[in-house]
Amino acid sequence: KNTDPTIDAPTIGKALLKSRGMFTHEYWYWISIGALIGFSFLFNICFVLALKYLN
């Protein structure tokens, strides 16, 4: 539970994110997970292509 009256957030985690100017809506968590998975696939594919090119 957030006990800081200056930040309007229900939890300490959301209060910390809000105090640092980050997004606190739930859909941003899923967007970040999707971006993480997408970039993992992208960089792995690029790495494989670079290895094939250097062979």
TrEMBL record:
<keyword id="KW-0812">Transmembrane</keyword>
<feature type="domain" description="Plant PDR ABC transporter associated">
    <location>
        <begin position="6"/>
        <end position="55"/>
    </location>
</feature>
<feature type="transmembrane region" description="Helical">
    <location>
        <begin position="27"/>
        <end position="51"/>
    </location>
</feature>
<dbReference type="Pfam" id="PF08370">
    <property type="entry name" value="PDR_assoc"/>
</dbReference>
<keyword id="KW-0472">Membrane</keyword>
<dbReference type="InterPro" id="IPR013581">
    <property type="entry name" value="PDR_assoc"/>
</dbReference>
<keyword id="KW-1133">Transmembrane helix</keyword>
<protein>
    <recommendedName>
        <fullName>Plant PDR ABC transporter associated domain-containing protein</fullName>
    </recommendedName>
</protein>
